[in-house]
């Protein structure tokens, strides 16, 4: 009888190993690039609101557009102030040995923080329930070696839950 129990234990271990080795397919993230005519420290003044094909049957186009419009609203409110401080900082840069650019850097960080907070709210409100995760990410531009901020929409993998019968 003792040998019989050992055989069952090995089979249970093999079943658990087979479930651990499952490969979960996750599509590539969707990138929403900046579409504005002005960029301050890699952050464009607005993002594209065109509905990407990769989100069909995952989220409603109206929800996607509303989220991008909220992001654009934050940018519309904060970037003009950043640009004014950038011009002032560049104008006074020689006299202040670059210290006059610190307000622009701080305002840019505050804008990024506001966008990250908005993304967290959107994710918790809607997108995590749909298996999506939005975030602001830094990425290399296609045409040059400069960096830009993009909206990255990642797919959250669905992990199968093992339930013994």
UniProtKB/TrEMBL annotation:
The entry's keywords: Membrane, Transmembrane, Transmembrane helix
Cellular location(s): Membrane
Q: Which domain of life is it from?
A: Eukaryota
One cellular component term (GO) for this entry is: membrane
User: Where are the membrane-spanning stretches?
Assistant: 85-105
InterPro entries tied to this protein: CHIC1/2, Golgin_A_7/ERF4
Q: What is its main location?
A: membrane
Instruction: List each copy of the Golgin subfamily A member 7/ERF4 domain by range.
Output: 45-134
Protein name, entry field: Golgin subfamily A member 7/ERF4 domain-containing protein
